Amino acid sequence: MINEQIRDKEVRVIGEEGQQLGIMSSRDAMKLAKDAGLDLVKIAPTAKPPVCKIVDYGKFRYEQARREKEAKKKQKVIEVKELRLSPNIDTNDLNTKVNNARKFLEKGDKVKVTLRFRGREMAHMGASKHILDDFAENLKDIASVEKPPKLEGKSMSLVLAKNIK
């Protein structure tokens, strides 16, 4: 809230250089801001009494946007990459998928390994769980199982995440 939007009876006022001006009525604080040619901005509305600062509102907004942008730069977005397997996958194909998963994990992403069943493969779901177990075993040096193999409809999936050192 800025200037006339501030309707509180009393506010704690901070000056343009950061000095405490004390607790006063919002009308007096507004007058101080107008005399300085600046705006009165409420920066802590939940405090008792609310804290207002005398600043140039345009500059204040710009600085705030810059700080948010900097904070956003520093955070890493973790993606979940999905690898699909079938119950009759060959060893070499499985190794290729393991290598792809290793690359994803080294980049910092999580890997969801899905074993999809079609047609008659549905009758042997329990016997195919070992494929997911082998997959996790091959990657145990850099990854740990975040979600164990679970049957969801026509597929069984497991989530792997990079080990934190």
TrEMBL record:
Gene Ontology cellular-component terms for this entry are: cytosol; membrane
Origin superkingdom = Bacteria
- Major place of residence: cytoplasm
UniProt domain Translation initiation factor 3 C-terminal: residue ranges? 78-162
In alphabetical order, the GO MF annotations are:
ribosome binding; translation initiation factor activity
What keywords is this UniProt entry annotated with? Cytoplasm, Initiation factor, Protein biosynthesis
Q: Which Pfam families match?
A: IF3_C (PF00707), IF3_N (PF05198)
Kindly list the places in or outside the cell where this protein is found, as annotated in its UniProt entry. Cytoplasm
Family to which this protein belongs: Belongs to the IF-3 family.
Subunit annotation: Monomer.
Name listed for the protein in its UniProt record: Translation initiation factor IF-3
Q: Which gene encodes it?
A: infC
